[in-house]
């Protein structure tokens, strides 16, 4: 590698550290240039007292390996066929019964896991830092195949009975045969100079893969052939520096009705028509988490710690709660009549979907929660950073 290339690589590494500091609230790095007063302003907001209006009960909990591990992983969980599937960084993949929390199977894939869990077509899928996608039978955990892609897999693959779609850290998108793992097609998207270390999970619907990119764009790709149906944009980069121009989409896009919605970091929350990728509406927002829907709202956990509800139909801001500022919130999850967000201290906060006021709080994991929480009706499943998978029931007092 030439000295010019080394210099460029070092610059990208340093800029990435600055951006990660901004995203994760990394106080030791920020301390290099901020004063004591500025550091105090950057501290997480203290928790406000809540008079509980609903009852939150932990129904069961179980351990999943070492959880997110020692690196900044964001391993997700997935519901499929009456089970919840989870993976740990040290290679454990587990199937857990949703009713009682009883473990159905536990498989060690004998490698570190960085991306997952994806489900579909009776398969459970995970990816590794070495660019390997592993497919397991959802009913037994038996390995079906392994397939090598071009780079790290940091997001859950998507699958149906025909194809598995994977986005890698280097901006490539792969379509793999669901039965064999053999590569069918591949696309190389244009990567910005600086991106957040993460990728958005693809979404498969009616044979079409919708893939959100680090450039603020969304691609619609035919799953069988890999042909691109349309290329739509959620946000355009703004500003002079590479940090200011970062507009990654790292959260899972949301399909609602005839539109698909996504939110970018330092950009927009917006919708695109499923049929042609034309924009429907866009509003200023900044998040690198997934979004969720409920009560006719789209919920966004902002990078600054605000929780916002935007009208699905036109994007109007219905309410906003800023009392969790700088608490590094997880993606929001609609559960019952409420919306839940978790923070870096492992507290799960329940807000009214009507107006955003707090109705309850519970603690899931003292090491924090980065994974998206998921719900099925009035139950909420939370995967803590240290590997504790918990199920909470949400109901009347």
Based on secondary structure, the structural category is mainly beta
Sheet-strand content, in percent, reads 35-45%
Overall CATH architecture of the largest domain: 7 Propeller
CATH T-level topology of the largest domain? Methylamine Dehydrogenase, Chain H
Strand order of the largest sheet: 1-32-31-30
- Number of distinct beta strands: 32
Which homologous superfamily in CATH is the superfamily of the largest domain? Answer: YVTN repeat-like/Quinoprotein amine dehydrogenase
Radius of gyration: 20 Å
Count up the helices.
Answer: 3
| Biggest sheet record | 4 strands, antiparallel
Can you tell me the residue ranges where pLDDT is under 50 for at least 5 consecutive residues?
Answer: 1-18, 20-34
Whole-number tally of structural domains: 2
User: Could you tell me the mean pLDDT?
Assistant: 90
Q: Please report the first level of CATH classification, the CATH class of the largest domain.
A: Mainly Beta
The helix content, as a percent range, equals under 10%
Alpha carbon gap, first and last residue: 64 Å
Shape: globular
């Amino acid at each position: 590698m030439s000295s010019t290339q080394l210099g460029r690589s070092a610059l990208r590494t340093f800029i990435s550290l600055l951006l990660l500091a901004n995203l994760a609230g990394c106080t030791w790095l920020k301390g290099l240039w901020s004063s004591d007063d500025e550091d105090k302003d950057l501290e997480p907001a203290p928790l406000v007292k809540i008079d509980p209006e609903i009852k939150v009960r932990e129904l069961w909990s179980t351990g999943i390996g070492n959880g997110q591990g020692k690196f900044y992983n964001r391993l997700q969980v997935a519901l499929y066929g009456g089970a919840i599937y989870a993976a740990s960084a040290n290679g454990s993949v587990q199937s857990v019964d949703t009713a009682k929390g009883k473990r159905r199977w536990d498989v060690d894939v004998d490698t570190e896991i960085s991306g997952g869990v994806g489900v579909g077509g009776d398969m459970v899928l995970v990816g590794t830092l070495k660019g390997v996608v592993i497919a397991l039978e959802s009913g037994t955990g038996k390995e079906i195949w392994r397939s090598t892609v071009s780079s790290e897999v940091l997001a859950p693959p998507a699958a149906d009975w025909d194809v598995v779609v994977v986005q890698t850290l280097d901006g490539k998108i792969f379509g793999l045969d669901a039965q064999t793992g053999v590569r069918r097609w591949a696309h190389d998207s244009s990567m910005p100079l600086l991106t957040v270390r993460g990728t958005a999970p693809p979404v498969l619907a009616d044979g079409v893969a919708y893939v959100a990119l680090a450039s603020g764009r969304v691609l619609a790709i035919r799953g069988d052939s890999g042909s691109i149906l349309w290329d739509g944009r959620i946000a355009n980069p703004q500003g002079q520096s590479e940090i200011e121009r970062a507009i990654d989409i790292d959260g899972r896009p949301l399909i609602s009705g005839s539109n698909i919605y996504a939110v970018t970091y330092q950009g927009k929350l917006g919708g695109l028509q499923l049929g042609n990728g034309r924009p429907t509406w866009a509003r200023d927002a900044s998040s690198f988490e997934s979004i969720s829907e409920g009560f006719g709202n789209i919920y966004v956990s902002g990078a600054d710690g605000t929780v916002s509800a935007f009208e699905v139909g036109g994007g109007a801001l219905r309410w906003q709660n800023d009392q969790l500022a700088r608490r590094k919130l997880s993606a929001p999850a609609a559960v019952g009549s409420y919306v839940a967000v978790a923070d870096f201290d492992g507290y799960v906060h329940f807000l009214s979907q009507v107006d955003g006021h707090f109705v309850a709080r519970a603690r899931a994991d003292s090491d924090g929660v980065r994974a998206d929480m998921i719900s099925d009706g009035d139950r909420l499943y939370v995967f803590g950073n240290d590997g504790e998978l918990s199920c909470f029931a949400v109901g009347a007092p």
